[in-house]
Write a structure and sequence with these properties.
Helix content: 10-25%
Largest sheet: 7 strands, mixed
CATH superfamily: Vaccinia Virus protein VP39
Radius of gyration: 16 Å
CATH architecture: 3-Layer(aba) Sandwich
Shape: globular
Distance between the termini: 40 Å
């Protein structure tokens, strides 16, 4: 956050840690442990950050398509999908009730096309019976993802939840090339068709976004 941002809300969650909602120069951000987890969309419909990459390498999506977002946050990725594809059905999974409440108050989570599930992602994917055209994995606690995200069993389950021709998108902040390679390799063991996009965060970190299909 730059110093001229106005703080709209500040507090702490037992799940996510220190949280604040800031606004400056028309940009509203949900900041968790110093990292921007969600933001509003400008008139262009693009954020100018890694979220925009979620719209790449996607299958054909129509009004009957279902999109699953694990790590809904304030709904930035959900809003991007709705902005591009219209009134598609989005299932959003978010573990932190504080984040959900802030998303409803300051961001996009009141949109009727977003169905919110207050749940742990690893629990939700074992219970759902639905099939999805797109599954987006964007689960962060600060800059880190939960350990189970890189478990092969996790990606096996996601593969089973995809429609034929669907795409799984997984995002991780990587600090070095070794971490990057391990993340991509773990997904490639489950999904035979892999594409990778890398969005630089700063000199030492970048968002590594992997698209998997079969």
């Amino acid at each position: 956050m730059v110093f001229w941002d106005k703080v709209l809300w500040k507090g702490e969650s037992p799940i996510s840690g220190k949280i604040k909602v800031t606004e400056g120069f028309g940009v509203r951000r949900l900041v968790v442990e110093g990292y921007t987890q969600s933001r509003n969309l400008p008139k262009s419909g693009k954020t100018g950050f890694y979220w925009d990459s979620f719209l790449e390498n996607l299958p054909k999506i129509n009004r009957k398509s279902k999109i699953l977002i694990l790590g809904l946050g304030g709904g930035t990725s959900a809003k991007l999908f709705l902005n591009k594809f219209g009134k598609v059905h989005i299932e959003g999974v978010e573990i932190d009730p504080v984040i959900i409440n802030l998303g409803k108050k300051f961001f996009y989570l009141n949109d009727p096309n977003i169905r919110i599930h207050k749940s742990d992602a690893k629990v939700f994917i074992r219970k759902t019976k639905d099939k999805y055209k797109v599954i987006c994995v964007d689960t962060f606690l600060g800059s880190k993802i939960p350990d189970f995200i890189e478990n092969l069993g996790f990606f096996d389950i996601l593969r089973g939840l995809l429609e034929r021709g669907g795409v799984m998108i997984a995002d991780k902040i990587c600090d070095n090339e070794e971490e990057d390679k391990e993340f991509v390799d773990s997904i490639s063991r489950v999904f035979k068709d892999i594409k990778v996009s890398r969005e630089r965060g700063h000199a030492y970190q970048q968002n590594v976004i992997v698209y998997g299909s079969y």
